Each structure stands twice: as structure tokens, then as C-alpha cells.
Fold this sequence. Notes:
The protein is mostly helical. It has helices at residues 5-21, 24-39, 49-69, 71-85, 94-116, 121-152, 154-176, 180-234, 238-265. The protein folds into 2 domains: 1-69, no CATH class; 89-269, no CATH class. Helix 2 (24-39) packs antiparallel against helix 3. Mean pLDDT is 77; it is low at 1-7.
Amino acid sequence: MATDRPSLHSRSLRAMVVNALLDWRGAAVLAAALVLSVLAPSPLPGWQTWYWWLAGVAGWLVISLAVFANPNTGAQVVEQMLRAKFDPAAIKDAESRRYVDKGLEYRAQIEAAAYRARPGLLRDNLAETADEIDRWLENMYSLALRLDAFAADRTIQQDLHSVPSTLQTYEQRMKTVADDKLRAQMHDIYEAKKAQWESLKNLQETMARARLQMDSALTALGTVYSQILLIGVKDIDSGRAQRLREDIAEEIRGLHDVVAAMDEVYQYKQ
């Protein structure tokens, strides 16, 4: 589920252009110019009908440029694209869905902060930071989907309830069985069940760690957002922006490690 950085950037620019050109206010200006060219073709001496068309096109272009230059336009477009890719509605667990949804909100605001920054090194740093956060969101989304899969896996949920009682049953029966061969056979089954239970506990602990990691990631993302606002306000040098990206990279590694651990321990079923 790798996020295609150049593709996202180019598609967001195209979407911003389309949004600006199709903005309802520009369309209203064009429509008004067309109506006036019919109803009042010559409101002033020497006025030509095509003047209305020229005025309508000029007004439409001014509005389109204003919409395109608005920092919120880029933020909204990027958020829409990321919500299409990392759709919170696809996540069944309410808590995980809330984490991802809030993460997307932070990402949109960070994009807006990058657009508001003055052109130059600072804006470039903020734009790179915003792009790296997409990897952060990707890992959060992966965790959410895996938590959903864990909760929906009836076999695992049944095993979590049945295996401990099975172990207890074998422990009791082995104490009462007199036949050595039968007891040895039961012991082998007991050891296999014990190994299964260890895998199940490992998986359960990893899932609990995943939930904590998502909570931690969202908190860190909120902190990053406030730091980015501070960078934008104070216009600090790029050194702080670089340290911020390093902090983000550390969080990304932490999320990726949990995703990898979940995938590893989940293999016990196969």
C-alpha cells in the first residue's frame, strides 16, 4: 500500500486546477455575463455584446486564480485524495477509525501550513515533512486494518477461549493416566497446545501494543502539527525542520515495526 509521492503531488495539482476552474463562483460570473449579454446587450453607448463575454471570462479567471492560490484549496484536495486511499469508513473498529480520521485532519492542516509558508527553503522543508506524514498515515491505516482482521478472525477468538481450558484438561488427565504410552502421547499434544497458546498470547500482546502505538502516533502527530505551526510563525531555520523530520521518521519506524510484528506472529495459523 505504498503511497506514490510524485503521483500524489502531480494529481493534487491537477485536482486543484480543476477545482479552481469549476468553482461555482466563477461559473456564476460566466452565467451572469451570458444572461446580461442577452438581456442588456448595450447598456451603455458604444457597449458591444462581446464586452459582457470578455468581462465574464476575466471575472472567471480572477476567481479561479484566487481559489487556486488559497492555501486551503491544496489542503482540501490532498485530504480528499488521502481519504479516498485511506478510507476511514472501511475500518470497523470505532477507536481505530477515530485515530485514522483525526490523523487525516492533522495531515490536511499540515498541508495548509506548508502552502501558507513563504516560498523558499522553509516551504520546501514543510512540504517534505507533509509528504513523510503520508507514510505515517499509511502505517496507521495498516495497523487499523490488521486490528480489524484480528477481531473478525473467529478461529483466533475461539482459540483464545478454548486453548487455556484444553491445557488445563490435559494437565489433569495426565496425572490420572496410568498407561505410559498414552501419557506420553497426551504429553506431546499438551506441548503442542502449549506452544499454540504461547503464539496466541504473543499475538494478543502484539495487538494490544498496536492499539497503544496508534494512540501514541496520533498524539505525536498532534505535537508535530503544533511544531509545524510554530516553525511557520517564527520562520525558524531549516535545522529545526530537519530535526522534526527525524522525529517523524522515528515514529514511522515504530509504526512499521509493530506492523511487521503483527504480520510475523499472525503466521502461527498457517
